[in-house]
User: Fold these one by one.
Assistant:
Number 1:
Amino acid sequence: MATLERELRAAHSPVRTSVLCPGPVNTAFVANSGDSRRRFAGSAGDVGNAVGAIGGGADPDEVGRQVLEAIRDDRFWIFTAPDLVASVQLQTTAMAENHALSRLRLG
């Protein structure tokens, strides 16, 4: 996407791109996924607890507002959770220092 954005700008196109990097969003996606239910039931024994462990997160309407604001402000990167930026920074540092894919955990 970054290459596409650079090419659009170089061509003086009015079209822009953005990359959405959402953190957890409180949707019913996992809860309504039959495949996920079977996987979690097999590993955790309790579908409700397994789905609850993944659930939660930001309100979908708030994420939508953040995305709209970012597009209006012509921002390329859209991070909806502050800890995602820190994670990207860790990964970028690992890439620059030793060409590794960071597997560090925040927290």
Number 2:
Amino acid sequence: MIDLDANRTNAFGKTRPGNTPRVRKRRVNATKSSRRAVPGLPINFYDATWYATLQNRDKVALKAKPALELHTIIPVNPLPNA
């Protein structure tokens, strides 16, 4: 939902410079990478199933903030294949 709300135009209504956003496609045989979760985000920004598997000390270290109300976003220009 957050990505759908991205500002894709400049102040004059023209597209922003640079490459256009695209949907990433993971190869079938690609190795999975793992990174630490970004600490301090609202709790509903984390995957609920993943968060439930954490131990209490890991939840405390994550410092998740209270859930942030996410409003329904109506895309003006929906992304293809999104």
Number 3:
Amino acid sequence: MLGKIGKQTDVIAHPDVTDAKFSGKDEDKRKNIALPFQLKELEKLGAKFRLSKNPVKITADIIDDR
């Protein structure tokens, strides 16, 4: 998507966005569902990361409170 946008794009994410994350309860069947890219790779494509552990006000009507 970043390659298609073709310009610098703000990406709001938690600082742990690149940490390994696994799905599934059975340890032998768990899948790694982490972001499959390094931040540096995405920055080369135009991503400008705003990393925050706290909610970020995007507009007056939109708050990313995850």
